[in-house]
Structures
1.
Amino acid sequence: MSTIREVAALAGVSLSTVSIVINGQAQARKITPATCEKVWDAVRELDYKPNIAARKLRLSADSESVTIALFWANDFRTTMLSRFLQGMQRQIIGDSSIELVVMTYLSGQLSHQRSLLDGRRFHAAIIANASEEDMAFLEQTELNFPVVLYNRESSRYPCVTVDEQQMGRIAAEELLKRGHRNICALTSSGNFAYMRQRDEGLFNAYQQAGYPIYADRIIQTDSSLSGGAAACRKALESRIPCSAIYCASDAIALGALRTLYDCKIRVPEQMSVISIGNGESSYAAYAMPALSNVYLPMETMAEKCLELARKAIDTHTITQGQTICLPTPFQLRESLGEAPHRQA
């Protein structure tokens, strides 16, 4: 195994310079970009692996414990954080050696997180909900500790993902086999690639089946209860014939169910509803009527993220490119039924 002395010798710099660079303090200590590049070139050439456990990453001196940071975007997805934490808790319970720290960040501004750049407050990081700007930052930045990505793909970091397009295709298949050829789609903002991929999976499946979903049947809204309620009302007011509503999130679907109830439209007899199940499963199960959805296994994904992070810490390695892709099962409940006057 290579040593930090060998890195310094190959890069032609001092031990202290190598330490400053790999510990994320180059900018603060005014180390030039050219010097940093030489250090990282040497690290890669020698396949140098910093001894993570030996760093003083915590204020306490307890070397038996490890700290893992969860970076979670502070936007509409904060309501989903409880599901992720529940999954991590299943891994942590009974293991007093793991300390979890939740760090919030603004979408698109992950690069502003000093603790991420410094890397001295934790042994590994799980990064969730990274935007395209955040992913660009991660792909271009040398971090000196293991990073695991939740629901994103990268050749540089280990990832725990699902097949986003497949989620949309599953929803389409369940609708089509029940005769729903004309549907409306209530989708959220297109700022996030994975949301667009789910919609594309649905749209492509309908296109291939010969029933394209035209633009006037696609309504953009916020991923919220109020957003879903408003979008559903807009769809009804348009008077476009449809027998089902696809919703890009559970929150949108629950809002839509409220509007359908207020308008005295029976579900699923007169209108079916299906969603991407990214919310609390109990909310969907206990809605009136219970909500059918394509389930995002967030708790299991959280467990797998934690497993990868802990493995990287225990082995003192930063693994690249490993991807775990989990299935997204369909959950049939009361909100999805046969299309009225189904054609033979």
2.
Amino acid sequence: MSSLVRKRKKKIPDELPELDQLRNELQRERYSQRYRQVLRSTVFILIVVAAAAILVAVLFMPVLQIYGTSMVPTLSEGDIVVSLKGVDFEAGDMVCFYSGNKLLVKRYIAGPGQWVDIDGEGNVSVDGESLEEPYLTEKALGVCDIEFPYQVPEKRIFCLGDHRSTSVDSRSTTIGCIADEEIVGKIVFRVWPFDRFGPLQ
């Protein structure tokens, strides 16, 4: 009888490492399951956020990169800007629009039915009132093949680039006045370069 008891007592220490190993294995499996769940949740959240950001960018706030020099000094080639859809324009606002298969950015000057006049020195007036343009560094009549004073047609807007001597814009029949359906939105913010990061006027 006593020998039997001794044998059982000897077996217990041998079984303990197996129990510890089983517990450790169980803990690793639980940790692995939790890790996979957290990973799946994180990936799902990132996909949802990315999809929402793309949807907002496409539908409400398109992000654009500037090419060319027609908006110098306000915008330079390579600048990345954010536009806002569905807003009303005022004189001086920057407008992004399609011209053919290109996206262009110009300055809103006048809307449907308004009269625009530009003299030989590049001074702009709308409905007989001189337009204040603090964003310009120089004025010029520029590339122009229309007669002034000029009345803006219905459902169209008259736009000019800030680099008046070289910009091809509504002064030229190459682009002309911009139709409502061609307008993408109003340029409101610059995100690149970082040293010029901020709202635009």
3.
Amino acid sequence: MEEFRYLKNYKPSRFKAEGCIYKQKFADHAVFFVNNLKHTTGKWCGQDFLLINWQERIIRDIFGIVHRGDECRQFRRAYIEVPIKNGKSTFAAAIALLLTLTDLEYGGEIYLCTGNAILADNMFSMIETILNQLKIFNRYITVDSELRKFTFRPLRAFLQVIDSKQPMCYGINAHSVIFDGLSNMNRQFYESMTAGTTLAREQPLILTLTSAGNDSDGICCDLRQYSRDVLSGAIANPTFYSSIFAADSDDDWTDEVIWRKANPSLGIIVPIERMRREFAEAQQNPRYETWFKKNLLGMAFA
């Protein structure tokens, strides 16, 4: 286990707005809940989730930074970009469950959006397995496999896994919409799921967790550019949270330091030896080099 496995010396986001505070008990609650979920596949199956430092920082920023008066969350929209195989989908599922079971939103509607039916079925299966391990909550949950829907009866709140190829869902009253892999979704679907969402609830959250996309005219590219502008200070939006893990266009893609810059879970979820094997193949195959740069270093839009 590498030294960066756990977050140390957390400091609230530099984008914490005037009039907002960091409420540690809110952040601790969110971190405690997620850390006690169980992984469902591979060598991690049955083990505690245990947030990696980049994940914990995001959880503490989004769930711990609130307005001083009403203690509602500052950030209403968030864009998180990280290359494939860094634990993005499991992280998305954990946040969806956190919002459904512990956010105390009566009648809350949480939608977890995926790129196609296969991904939606896999996500539904993963969440169902996680819930089966949560004995304290599982007895209060009704499962509808046909709709890929979990209803938490004490709050009449539900979590539904949505396939982006399904008919559009205009007019929903979402407490949260989470996009797992926006690079595989189109603009119309994104807009249908988010239209009016931030108006109807007290502290809604539209969260995008994605890897870099290919379509320069797509919604993922647009949202990424907006996110980069927020990070650079070109745009000031205190309700928008941004975190991008990617190599820059002028970075040396052969340097392992750059691999770590782009892959915050490297050495934890993905062994460095496996990354080296992928790199060796990329050096010998120009087409695979393009794949390596895009999918493992996030250089698509750099």
4.
Amino acid sequence: MAGYMGYMEELSVTEAENLKKTITRLFRQTCMIQMRYDPVTLTPRDNPDYELCVRHKGFIEDYLAVLGCELEHDPQEHIFRLKGEGVETEKISLTSTVIILLVKMIYREKIMGEGLNATVTNLEEIREYGKNTNLLNRKLTGTEWREALYLMNRHQMIELPGAVRDVEDQTPIYLYSTVNLYVGAADINELIEEYREEAPENETIEEIISADAAE
């Protein structure tokens, strides 16, 4: 780690401290996006963590490589993402997977139909999508909703105007494009099998899930 210490010593105290915090947040969030939205006004603002990743990209890549990780950059979507064997895997419950899938569907429809300024949803709309697609065929508990919201908030898929525990039916939930990075093929296949077991005659469910997974 001699190279790490030498690089950090060349930075100002403030820059070095901010870089340490950014790397720590990267491990916790796995994603860094260029523009974040004010949680109250939902107006865009620069994300200093993203700017730090841009300035120190080479150093961060070398540092992460030692830990079995890599820093993936999508310049079109303006996203940095932590990947690799060294990244701690997180098991997403089936219910949270369904909710993320619904949010992906909502995001896609809003982007295609109304543009970037319309990417706001709420719990009521998510439930309505769940009902219309039959992906949510039961009433979820508050704990299940909070688990999904906390997961999406932590991984920069959504922005909330307050704490997860305070989210109500009409609370605005801003959707980031990073929601498209989650719910992988394995999760989709698990969903298909789950719904095939519960309702083998319902081909609509499999079509919806498979179409989203193919994108």
